[in-house]
Amino acid sequence: MGEKLYTLGGGDPRELLGGGLREEGRYNYGYVQLVRRLLITYGLDKLLGRAQERHHVQFDLANAVALMLVERLHEPSSKHRNYHNQGEYLGLKPVELQHVYRSLNYLAEESERIQKRIWEKNRHLFNASLDIVFYDVTTFYFDSEVEIEGALRQKGFGKDGKIGKTQIVFGLLIDKEKNPVGYRVYKGNTWEGQTIRDAISGLRKDYALDKVVVVADRGMLSQENREWIEQENGYEFILGERLRKLPSALQEHLLNLDNYTKTWKEDEKDEKATVRYCSLEVDGRTVIGTYSKKRADKDRHEREEKLLKAQKLLQKPDNIERKARQYFLHKDGKALWSLDENKIKQSERFDGFLAITTSSATLTPEQTLDHYRNLFTIEHTFRSFKTHLETRPMFHWTDKRIEGHICLCYMAYALLNHCLLKTNRKDHKYSENDLRRGLDKMQLSLVIEGKREFYLRARHEAGAADIAERLGLPALPNLIPKNLIDNYL
Predict the structure, then answer these.
(1) Average of pLDDT values for 249-276?
(2) Does this model's pTM top 0.70?
């Protein structure tokens, strides 16, 4: 086995003296090398060092956090599993289980400093300017239905469809490159529209920003929120409109395709993504209506599926009551259920239409549409949190541990997005899973031959080598004496 590994590492087995080679163990070094480098790049190693002094921590806080970040990026699992998995890596000092858990408390205490440091470094690393910020919320659920009065874990409207589970609400701010700007954690029963003021207030308090355009979805929309963003902060906004809730005269204008005389391409490569639009000034703001044939087909298809479901429900009236409105059903005076033809026709009127509003007097309609289109980037970000980083389900029960877990996942996302920005160029695009596969290949085997102990590096595949080069990770020699390994990691 040792000879084979040595050959894979680029060496000639004849160079090895004697025989009796055996592989003692195999370890990953790529994730540790990456996390260590990025903690230094962002200055988080020093920040955690100062936190250790400030809180009189008696263990290496940065090392414990590095272990959890390595595991979160490599193969997310519980903190207990992080502790047991640490032997799979080279370059980390041993961490006690209690120190893994206690580190979450300190991350919670330092979360605001960590958020600000990450943004400041991203601004310099990627020459980023915070003129446009995207905001949205999601929910992270727990594997528990137990609520504690006043705690973060509460039941509420879950975006994952986990009925009956407790959850928290997570509000996130990102820029147009998906760089994280900041986050807030709220009780699980908080209405998302109540969170935007707190999140936006942080932009002025933490980043001293005088001018910024806030882009958010219609869930954040309320007259009070719009006025607050403008009047209290002096910021501009681009918000999704509830077209069905607009005044009837404005609604009629926006639903008349004769008014849609201009076109804008949602995707330059997709002819079907051409969007027609109109705009008009209303109470000092610009309201933009858009119409898309592609969107109209989607709306029509979704309604047809609901109507098929409605026909099935009509065969089982006992199941209708709580689903009637959703499936275009109504009940007459004799308590008989039937399709509501008026609601169906009303729904058809809105096929393909979408409205947004902006308070900006300087953005053109096309620029406004471009910014609103980019709101999807925050949906992709939430997907990274939930799938690749497996932020939920959560198994921590105290507020402090919950906040620490969220801070850890936020740090992991910041590092992950940094890697994607560094590796993705015009000539080649790497996905999150491509990065993971590449780092997985960065392994060392501890090989023993007689009294000699050395590490043998596995040969990099082309993709892994390219990823390492783009991330600026130093290449390891093929063969490293065991007693010198700390010089390379």
Answers:
(1) 85
(2) yes
